[in-house]
Automatic annotation (TrEMBL), chains A, B:
UniProt domain Beta-hexosaminidase eukaryotic type N-terminal: residue ranges: 38-160
Protein name stated in the entry: Beta-hexosaminidase
Annotated EC: 3.2.1.52
InterPro entries: Beta_hexosaminidase_sua/sub, GH, Glyco_hydro_20_cat, Hex-like_dom2, HEX_eukaryotic_N
Keyword annotations from UniProtKB, A to Z: Glycoprotein, Glycosidase, Hydrolase, Signal
Domain of life: Eukaryota
Gene3D superfamilies: Chitobiase/beta-hexosaminidase domain 2-like, Glycosidases
Top-tier EC class: hydrolase
UniProt domain Glycoside hydrolase family 20 catalytic: residue ranges: 185-489
Organism encoding this protein: Cinchona calisaya
One MF annotation (Gene Ontology) recorded for this entry: beta-N-acetylhexosaminidase activity
Similarity remark: Belongs to the glycosyl hydrolase 20 family.
Catalytic site: 332
Length: 538, 538
């Protein structure tokens, strides 16, 4: 007994504070979540009061029976975890010298139930993360159905680790942990716009990395638009003459690299080829796509060549963009260039179509072509609002503009994605993080059948007045507020946004520590801090 | 002949464009620099019209006779070059298949004349970079006196490489190159302020990396000030109770890591411990340093403890900060808390000192202590203005406020650093890049002896209203404009800032490609782009 007491005494000297307390199980609820610093909040969390230390040589161990990690997705995710843990601080304590080795977490043991690593819509992203107190040596444990759930678990684990400035080692507090988690919505997106401002590949990769911290899982890449066409299209190589400059371009190999980079992090890339509007840049290389030299949008509906080009684009991108969906745009179509251009108005007359019917014809033809390449289609809401009954029933309606669209579309049996501009447009600097947090995708949708049709939502980083110099702070932390709305169980969401201020501030500072230029919480979007102060209070 | 012609024909098919032209030697002058895209502009540049291709497996070869690179500084610099070249684009061509292998640059051959790798003030940073047309295989050649000159050469080399969207390989245009280069000033600084806002280590490292792109070589780390004291001081461990929060701190090991990270990139870290003003935060842990609980600045000049603490700080930092200089501040000293606090005014009376003499006494005592640790001292200009004749002759005067100080200080034989606030304060968002570019450190200093006393200059990123979320775009590109003023030979500088707009825009976009959030050129400091457009035109 005396020897044991002596050992405990020595441990106290070596290890500093060692708290032993009665195990307290807490189910997470919004008011108890004050103690938690995890963002977004998991489905179910129980934690205690003990502390473990992260070993200097943390290792990854796996079950290996089902999931072999042949492509190294899990291993790379683990290395990214180590990079995050080791890059923020300098660890000075040598955990090999700790007398009580059971207090040292030596590794993370990951068991993944499925053998494949295909990332597709609706993939199981659930996980269980546990950090038990017992163990000699101690381990953290992850169980997941797929490797993508395991990646989420590693992210959550990174958020319960702390560098202790006294012990100079990374610690896990509030042990033992048992976390069950899965997302509320399967589609949790962020739109970026590389037409209004070109974004270098490295910047896009940084955005993808930052998305993983908040468990966002779809990067909606609005690649081309009126102002520029930066993507290589091998079938029609003059299309990218519509770039701003010869260097502000993406080759197909680079697009494939972005898809690969994202996929290995559990993120889908949704390519958008917006037609028939928002397409002026297409005509720089192929002027015949314009109704006329003076009337350059929408794309010429009367011309077979227009649809040959669209088909070529879809054919090329289908080789690279493997997400189940493609976004065909279809928003803000001003048809006056059709009716005012003689050869097109003649064509309309011959076909017996008015402008609105021509718009419908265009969208349906584009849908048909995209389907032939195996895609399911997402379209902006105007297509539903104008000719919903004619759309392919599998169309996903992307709501951005008019109130009531989500109710109407789901009532008509369509799936929906929510991006209502008054709440989830990141380029609206006046929209506060509280408003981002409070925006409920199922607002006014009460029937379970309709609720089930809402795939999720997306915050939109339109690029008219944003480029690589300020995109990160315009996205974060407001996108994080929406990310919790999309991940966390409805009952665990704060009813009043201000309740999560401290936890979001903590997440914002975590982003800064990881090199992500997340803006202060106070003020408008991307506001600079107005005075000296702590990261946690601004 | 026919066979040769046939081979040339095949080469043209395989390699695309192959231009052979008469060799044109151009010495760089500001107006010819329009063709160059290097920033900052080198001393002497000759180039041609030919093109070489960068081999897929670019290798580093060295002479080895003098410089062994035992600590891997050169090798790491080379890997950073590869990371930059390969990370921006996806290389698709296989240079091993090029028929004419003499067109492929297989490696960079580096010869360094000195054996050591000590980084100290005045280290030789010169280099010669040549890319000859002849060679089978072709090589780029670097000669430098020190490894730090070689690092600059690698940076310049990275700026003459281009990803060609047709050949899908990195090319070097305008071959053959012969570049001789060295800095005009040996001190080319950037100040960061981690007291007004804590900057995570990762952010500081990003700033250091970005400095290397513009060949800045001193990071003036204004570590502590009124608002917070984030640095661990082992001799007086309560000093960092003055942090904003328990996590917004740097351990000494982390400070050492920053020094190491910078040193391996050729950058000195200048630590500033500003006394006796700007020091309120010191008293959070040691309230006796304050004149009184209600009057908390400057540090109590009457107390031995004050100087014991300063001595402890200097002792601790001297173990980590190995730059020849330490900055002791001494600016903006409001002595009213001395005269209004009884025990101090009594002490002044006893010592026969007025407030001004007490200020002088304080600064000289701090200088004496810093000297005892082997440091040379930098002080802000008020010390010179108020008691220049009493300062140690080796003091370097840091000009920021009053016109004429540099002329007066150099006339009195002092070395100077220039940071005049109306031109080189980055937190002044209204100061344009043109004004940064045009600010001449030797303005009105005509005598060669006095000119030689101007060590260089520094742009200051004060942190009152800047944090990790917006520091990069507040620094860049305006700091780059100053970086050229400090590096480039006076005769090669543009007499009118607007002449370098295109080249600076190119450098800004290069920074973006490398993941540095450099702001558009147009508008105020860190202004967002006002509309869609090309990086090169905003």
């Amino acid at each position: 007994m005396l020897a044991m007491m002596g050992r405990i005494g020595i441990q106290k000297i070596f290890l500093g504070i060692l708290l032993i307390d009665v195990l307290v199980i807490r189910s997470v609820a919004a008011d108890n979540a004050k103690d938690l610093k995890i963002w977004p909040l998991p489905v179910s969390v129980s934690y205690g009061h003990d502390r473990l230390y992260l070993g200097n040589d943390l290792e990854l161990t796996t079950d290996g029976r089902m999931y072999s990690d042949a492509s190294g997705i899990l291993k790379d995710g683990f290395f990214r975890l180590l990079h995050i843990l080791n890059g923020d601080h300098v660890i000075e304590a040598n955990t090999f010298h700790f007398i009580n080795s059971s207090l040292v977490i030596e590794g993370i043991h990951v068991v993944i139930a499925s053998s494949g690593n295909e990332l597709q819509h609706g993939v199981d992203e659930s996980y269980k993360l546990s950090v038990p107190m017992q163990g000699n040596p101690s381990f953290a444990y992850i169980e997941a159905k797929t490797v993508y759930g395991a990646l989420h678990a590693l992210e959550t684990f990174s958020q319960i680790c702390y560098f202790n400035f006294s012990t100079r080692v990374i610690e896990v507090h509030q042990v033992p942990w048992t976390i069950f988690d899965k997302p509320r919505f399967s589609y949790r997106g962020l739109l970026i716009d590389t037409s209004r401002h070109f974004l270098p590949i490295r910047m896009i990769k940084k955005v993808i990395d930052s998305m993983t911290y908040a468990k966002l899982n779809v990067l909606h890449w609005h690649i081309v638009d009126t102002e520029s066409f930066p993507l290589e299209i091998p079938s029609y190589p003059k299309l990218w003459n519509g770039t701003y400059s010869s260097s502000e371009r993406y080759t197909m190999a680079e697009a494939a690299e972005i898809v690969r980079y994202a996929q290995r992090r559990g993120i889908h890339i949704l390519a958008e080829i917006d037609v028939p509007g928002h397409a002026k840049s297409w005509g720089v290389g192929y002027p015949s796509l314009w109704p006329s030299i003076n009337c350059t949008q929408p794309l010429d509906v009367s011309s077979n060549f227009t649809f040959e080009v669209i088909d070529g684009i879809l054919s090329d991108i289908s080789k690279v963009f493997k997400y189940k969906f493609v976004h065909l745009g279809g928003d803000e179509v001003n048809t006056s260039c059709w009716t005012s251009t003689p050869h097109i108005s003649n064509w309309l007359e011959k076909k017996g179509l008015n402008e609105s019917e021509a718009y419908q014809y265009f969208v349906l033809e584009a849908q048909r072509m995209a389907s032939s390449y195996g895609y399911d289609i997402i379209n902006w809401e105007e297509t539903f609002v104008n000719f919903g009954s004619k759309l392919s029933r599998k169309t996903v309606i992307h709501h951005w503009l008019r109130g009531g669209v989500v109710q109407q579309a789901t009532a008509a049996g369509f799936q929906c994605i929510v991006s209502n501009q008054e709440s989830w447009y990141l380029d609206n600097l006046g929209t506060t993080w509280q408003e981002f947090y409070a925006n409920e995708p199922l607002m006014n949708i009460t029937k379970p059948k309709q609720q089930a049709l809402v795939m999720g939502g997306e915050v939109c980083m339109w690029g008219e007045r944003v480029d690589g110099s300020d995109i990160e702070q315009t996205i974060w932390p407001r996108a994080a507020a929406a990310a919790e709305r999309l991940w966390t169980s409805y009952d665990n969401l704060a009813k009043n946004s201000t309740e999560v201020t401290e936890r979001l501030a903590h997440f914002r500072c975590l982003l800064n520590q990881r090199g992500v230029a997340a803006a202060p919480l106070t003020g408008r979007g991307r506001a600079a801090p107005v005075e000296p102060g702590s990261c946690y209070k601004q």
